[in-house]
TrEMBL record:
This is SCO family protein. SUPFAM superfamilies: Thioredoxin-like. It comes from the Bacteria. The lineage of its organism: Bacteria, Pseudomonadati, Pseudomonadota, Gammaproteobacteria, Lysobacterales.
Length: 728
């Protein structure tokens, strides 16, 4: 069995007898989805393969648009149209989004891209298979569309240029109901002996207590030199033989799955480091999660409503005083949302969109004592809200001093608001055995793991307790949502860390003050540290200007201000591109823009969050770092198992509607690609908010094959929280 067969990516039989593949795809909206579970299950689907370039010479998409019009209300409810690109390199999510707008695509017509292996799996399933007489069947995907109902197993074909009413009539023959075949399953792991062959180079370079389940051997340190405003980094060489994990999955860096806790290099067991087993899928849950219903309205939903209210009143020549008062209240409410002021009856109350409260996001793990006063555990409570592509948390730093030598827990309260549906997956980073017994003495970066993969629906609150290894190992917890990642991610850091001579709390307090909510003056001083080009800061500034205009009853000026607000609001909602007034560096592969204590990113080639050029070792990438805030940022880059190896554990959450059995759920050995934090100088304020941005360039050569988990992880180690931009 080869690696492709092991992942279920082989050229399967015709779709009428095999389950629809449940591979991960990316929609034209930039969201990741499971093809079967999210797009096909429970619906009739019309599947079409095309590229935007080919469609110019052999137009089919316009015909599909006419089919869409005939489907009416059925589209998006019980019928989905899936246009799958055959040219993932050119048809980026942004290019597909442009095509969708041009064709008038409505909800339910999805334009899809993804990793080449995933797209090849779908194409092989629907059009190419190895069971035709005399060899492989001819590829007829350009001229034929497939339609069917995965639940009933009924499938048919129709010419792509057939009359639209005929195609729509064929779809009406099917009903989106029936007895499911059962969810498709990935095949089990390959023989352990076969996988161990890939480990032999690593094992031969090991030392006592090294090699998975002990720490994997470490790579040679990266070489890092800085001359002027350019830093050049070359990473150490991989432990494994060369491979191309995204072309021929899973790659030589996949480790055999071992269903035990991990051990440090001293041979000591690291308790609570086995996330899942075949018999206990949620092995790190402490108790049963409690799920209740909450108000689902998100801050962006309320902001959009407020802007609409202000605009409507400002444009209405017949407005009365009651209308004007309503507009002024809407302005005040929008400012409250941005500042994180209390909002009645909203789950997001107290969570600011302006990231100025870092010093207040520090908590201590409270110890649990036995009858003799000995510490036997501990707990800390963390509250998060999930909406759009955001995770906001009331906790960005934890002081775990009280539980250095004992297991402890984090109790999460997870409020999922509009467009926030996802699987909760906190990814804990653990170091090796610490260099000394005191809190704040750390070992070498070792391993990270998904601690759970628990499904969460919009309009729900999930309270879930996760078991942690003794805090002497704990580095941070990276919470991410795969359905919109990047940028849906947030980090809780170990407050005891020191970066460039300062601990993490001091980095925040030196910028924003000890208590940025102590007074109105303290709040305004903290917000002033955020750059004027940061989209939430632009929106906040315009709203304050509009409040003055509304007080003077200058409604014509308010109309113009609302138009500018909508641009800033749109920039806020999409961090996979730069704000409109920030220019991409055409000489870089990737431009990152630090603003509002977070990171926007944009690839020069138009890709969303995927660096497809990185298929194997030796790949260079040029990254331009721009700083729009009025304080220093830093840059680091981390590998999630590409160089030292990663394992995969399959946890079935089908019964509760999750995705754990289809998606990576396991442990990855960490390598720090850019180990010395790179300073990105602050912006210089200018009149008219035309700041001069701080700037630095990183030229990075990656000498390990990528991990299929994640190609690399980029962040600011001094203001971590949501200052993250991960690359698939």
């Amino acid at each position: 069995m080869n690696r492709r067969e092991w992942l279920g990516l082989s050229d399967g039989a015709a779709c009428r007898v095999t389950p629809v593949p449940n591979v991960v795809v990316t929609t034209h909206e930039g969201r990741r989805a499971l093809f079967h579970d999210d797009l096909a299950r429970g619906r009739i689907v019309l599947v079409q393969f095309a590229s935007l370039a080919d469609d110019a010479g052999y137009p089919v998409l316009a015909n599909v648009a006419r089919v869409q019009a005939l489907l009416g209300e059925r589209l998006g409810r019980d019928v989905h149209i899936c246009t799958i690109t055959t040219d993932a390199q050119s048809d980026t999510p942004r290019a597909l989004a442009d095509a969708a707008r041009r064709l008038g695509a409505k909800p339910g017509w999805w334009f899809l891209t993804g990793e080449p292996a995933a797209l090849a799996t779908l194409k092989a399933h629907f059009f190419q298979h190895g069971h035709a007489h005399g060899g492989d069947a001819e590829d007829c995907s350009r001229g034929v569309m497939r339609y069917g109902n995965p639940a009933t197993g009924l499938w048919g074909s129709v010419p792509a240029k057939a009359e639209p009413d005929w195609i729509a009539e064929r779809l009406s023959w099917l009903a989106a109901r029936g007895t499911p075949h059962g969810a498709p399953r990935r095949r089990g792991p390959a023989a352990l002996a076969a996988l161990c062959v890939a480990l032999l180079p690593a094992m031969s370079r090991g030392e006592p207590h090294s090699g998975h389940r002990y720490p994997q051997p470490y790579l040679a340190a990266s070489t890092q030199t800085t001359v002027g405003d350019v830093t050049t980094v070359v990473t150490g060489a991989s432990l494994f033989e060369p491979s191309q994990p995204f072309v021929d999955p899973p790659g030589t860096n996949l480790l055999p799955t071992i269903y035990t806790n991990l051990f440090d290099s001293n041979g000591e067991e690291m308790l609570n480091t086995l996330p899942s087993t075949p018999t206990v899928p949620y092995n790190l849950h402490d108790g049963v999660p409690v799920v209740t219903t909450i108000d689902r309205v998100s801050p962006t939903t309320d902001l959009a409503d407020a802007l609409d209210r202000i605009d409507t009143v400002a444009r209405d020549a017949r407005r009365g005083r009651d209308d004007e008062d309503a507009a002024r209240r809407a302005i005040d409410r929008a400012i409250d949302i941005l500042e994180g002021n209390p909002i009645e009856n909203r789950a997001y109350s107290g969570f600011p969109l302006l990231h100025y409260t870092g010093p207040l996001k520090l908590k201590k793990v409270e110890p649990v004592l036995d009858a003799n006063g000995n510490t036997i555990g501990g707990n800390v409570n963390v509250h998060q809200i999930w909406y759009d592509n955001h995770i906001e948390s009331d906790t960005a730093m934890l002081d775990p001093s009280a539980v250095q030598g004992v297991p402890w827990t984090i109790t999460y309260t997870l409020d999922v608001l509009d467009r926030g549906r996802d699987d909760f997956s906190p990814f804990a980073f653990y170091d090796d055995a610490p260099s000394g017994p005191k809190p704040g003495e750390f070992g070498r970066p070792n391993v990270g793991m998904d601690q759970t993969f628990f499904p969460m629906d919009e309009g729900t609150r999930t309270v879930l307790k996760v078991k942690m290894a003794p805090a002497k190992y704990w580095s941070l917890t990276y919470t991410w949502g795969w359905r919109w990642h990047a940028p849906r991610a947030q980090v809780t850091e170990n407050r005891l860390k020191v970066v460039d001579g300062k601990d993490l709390y001091r980095w925040e307090a030196d910028v924003f003050g000890e208590n940025p909510r102590a007074s109105e003056a303290a709040k305004l001083a903290a917000i002033a540290k955020i750059g004027d080009r940061a989209p939430p800061k632009v929106l906040w500034r315009l709203l304050r200007d509009a409040r003055r205009s509304a007080a003077a009853r200058d409604w014509k000026r308010v109309v113009a201000q609302v138009a500018d607000m909508r641009v800033a609001f749109d920039d806020y909602k999409d961090r996979t591109r730069l704000p409109r007034d920030v220019k991409i560096d055409p000489d870089a592969d990737l431009t990152l823009f630090y603003a509002n204590n977070t990171i926007h990113g944009q690839f020069t080639d138009g890709a969303a969050t995927t660096f497809a050029k990185y298929q194997s070792r030796g790949t260079p990438i040029k990254i331009t770092l721009l700083n729009g805030d009025y304080y220093d940022h830093r840059y680091m880059n981390v590998d999630f198992g590409g160089g030292r190896g990663w394992e995969n554990q399959f946890k079935s959450s089908v019964r509760v509607g999750g995705s754990g059995c289809w998606f990576t759920f396991g442990r990855a050995y960490i390598n720090i690609n850019v180990a010395q934090p790179v300073r990105v100088p602050p912006a210089t304020p200018r009149k008219g908010h035309e700041d001069t941005l701080g700037r630095h360039r990183v030229n990075l050569t990656l000498n390990a094959d990528p991990s299929r988990r994640l190609r690399f992880y980029q962040f600011d180690p001094t203001h971590h929280d949501v200052a993250i931009f991960s690359i698939h």
